[in-house]
Structures are given as structure tokens and as C-alpha cells.
Design brief:
Elements (H helix, E strand, L loop, with lengths): L1 H23 L19 H13 L6 H10 L4
Length: about 80
């Protein structure tokens, strides 16, 4: 249990430092889109922008897997 508490404190300290840095440097932080709860989903274009960022940071998947996933999220 001691290791968990130590790890938890370390994670909180890192996140706190990151948030403070981000607030001090807003021009260096990626903008995260937001919507009011209950106002509907994001547009198809915004969804594509989001998923492009997700997939760009991952190793390439086989095309058939990617195609099935895009159909599943209704983008393909």
C-alpha cells in the first residue's frame, strides 16, 4: 500500500505541475473542444479532427481494422 500512496502523490504532483505550466503557457497547449451537456454531439468534421489526432499518435493499424472502426464510429 505504501508504493501505491507514493505513486499517487507523484502522479498528483506531476499533474499539478503540468496544469500550472499550461495555465502559464496557453499558447503551447493543445486546445480541447467542449460543448454544453445536452446540446448534442460534435460535428462530423470535429469528430474526424479528434480521431485523426488519436490515430496519428499510435502505430499504424491494418487498413481493414481501421476501416471497420471508422464504420463503427460512423465516420467512414
Amino acid at each position: 500500500m505504501v508504493d501505491y500512496e507514493e505513486h499517487r502523490r507523484h502522479m498528483i504532483a506531476e499533474m499539478s505541475a503540468f496544469i500550472e505550466w499550461g495555465l502559464a503557457n496557453p499558447d503551447k497547449v493543445r486546445w480541447i473542444p467542449r460543448k454544453r451537456i445536452g446540446t448534442g454531439g460534435f460535428s462530423r468534421t470535429m469528430s474526424r479532427v479528434f480521431w485523426h489526432g488519436v490515430f496519428r499518435s499510435m502505430p499504424p493499424a491494418p487498413k481493414d481494422v481501421l476501416r471497420r472502426f471508422l464504420r463503427w464510429v460512423n465516420l467512414g
